[in-house]
From TrEMBL:
GO terms for molecular function: orotidine-5'-phosphate decarboxylase activity. The keyword Signal does not apply. SMART domains: OMPdecase. InterPro entries: Aldolase_TIM, OMPdecase, OMPdecase_AS, OMPdecase_bac, OMPdeCOase_dom, RibuloseP-bd_barrel. Residues 9-235 form the Orotidine 5'-phosphate decarboxylase domain. It catalyses: orotidine 5'-phosphate + H(+) = UMP + CO2. The lineage of its organism: Bacteria, Bacillati, Bacillota, Clostridia, Eubacteriales. This is Orotidine 5'-phosphate decarboxylase. Homodimer. Catalyzes the decarboxylation of orotidine 5'-monophosphate (OMP) to uridine 5'-monophosphate (UMP). Pathway: Pyrimidine metabolism; UMP biosynthesis via de novo pathway; UMP from orotate: step 2/2. The gene is pyrF. Belongs to the OMP decarboxylase family. Type 1 subfamily.
Length: 242
């Protein structure tokens, strides 16, 4: 894989609480990442203004607010988020079929109304911070995590969603069942030899790609590194090594 192709697959999580930090990271990391993720911390502290600021810098954005509510509420929230012009956003698969369909439909309608290209809609499956024990004992699900992730991926695809957020542990099975065009965004990426912290289902960049991930989300291994650009470059090197 060429480095420019790997770059398109790397999403850097801007998990910071100020516009200044976020914009500084984007300026340093733009050469190395195809997308930037705005999550709850940055969005809740800076609001929609930060999305406009970042878009003005010409970067593609993944708005990660993990919508999970009744279908009407999610549909209305989706309508508002669609106006921000992001490249992708996510909802929880656990919200169910009607909620996922409502999100997609209101996103389609709003995009058409505004003449914008529709953002990709992704379903978050089982969070990468959940291990098998917590999945069974705390969340009360029976069976393997992978079975639930795959079942939710199939449900998301049936609802017309563009893809899922899952760990790379499940990426191979999702790729086989959901086809070559289904987006599989994998967080929980840790370069070889680094600690997982709160992440439980972790893999290296090379393993995630080999498993079938279409995009890798990386936060702390890049943004908390002494030299974020060097850390991003190191991750791209691991990605193209396969
Ligand atoms: O939807 C997400 O982006 C997400 C889903 C998931 O299952 N696990 C997960 O870690 N994420 C996000 O991916 C990022 C991972 O950050 P690091 O663990 O610092 O690399 C964070 O911003 C999380 O909010």
């Amino acid at each position: 894989m060429h480095i420019s192709e790997a770059r398109e697959k790397l999403i850097v999580a801007l998990d910071v609480d100020s516009a200044e930090q976020a914009l500084k990271l984007v300026e340093r990391l733009k050469p190395w990442a195809g997308l930037f993720k705005v999550g709850m911390e940055l969005f809740y502290s800076q609001g929609p203004v930060i999305i406009n600021e970042l878009r003005r810098r010409g970067v593609k954005l993944f708005l990660d607010l993990k919508l999970h509510d009744i279908p009407n509420t999610v549909a209305r929230a989706t309508r508002v988020l669609t106006r921000l012009g992001v490249a992708m956003f996510n909802v929880h698969a656990a919200g169910g079929r009607t909620m996922m369909r409502a999100a997609l439909e209101s996103c389609q309608e709003e995009s058409a109304k505004l003449g914008l290209s529709r953002p990709l809609v992704l379903a978050v499956t089982v969070l990468t911070s959940i291990d098998q024990l917590a999945f069974n004992q705390e969340l009360g699900f029976s069976g393997p995590v992978a079975d639930k992730v795959v079942a939710w991926a199939l449900l998301a695809r049936e609802c017309g969603l563009d893809g899922v957020v899952a760990s790379a542990y499940e990426a191979g099975a999702i790729r086989r069942l959901c086809g070559p065009d289904f987006i599989i965004v994998t967080p929980g990426i840790r370069p070889s030899g680094t600690a997982g912290g709160d992440q439980k289902r972790i893999v290296t960049p090379a393993v995630a790609l080999a498993a079938g991930a279409s995009h890798l989300v990386v936060g702390r291994p890049i943004i908390a590194a002494p030299d974020p650009a060097k850390a991003a470059r190191f991750i791209l090197d691991e990605m193209i090594a396969i």
